Amino acid sequence: MKVSGKDVAYVSELAHLELTEAERQRMLRDLTSILEYVDRLNRLDTSGVPPMAQVSAGMPPLSAMRPDQVRPSLPREEVLRSAPQTEGEFFKVPKVIEK
To answer: Which of 31, 58, 63, 75 has its CA 20 to 30 A from that of 94?
Structure first.
């Protein structure tokens, strides 16, 4: 799949990125390369590969799960005292989205 300069401009606008011309050209090249690689992967025959197959043969499976730990949290008043700005029982933060 070929990415156009218009695609890069659209994505950078969505991400609120201000890219120089050199950065736009590099992004265009990188995105095209990534999508071409994904296209190559999509053409592979994976019919004989079971779902969720592990590629680390010979290694024990790693679990991303851990037992839940319930710990007491800090009192709300203490946390709010350390905040730069508060409003009632909430943190007050600066506006970051302009559009």
So the answer is: 75
**pLDDT tens, 38-86?**
999 999 998 988 887 566 655 666 666 778 899 999 999 999 999 999 9
Q: Residue ranges of the domains in the chain?
A: 5-42
SS3 call for 86:
strand
CA distances from 56 to 24, 38, 61 (A): 37, 21, 8
The mean pLDDT value of the chain amounts to 87
Residue 38 CA from chain centroid, whole number: 18
The CATH architecture assigned to 5-42 reads Orthogonal Bundle (1.10)
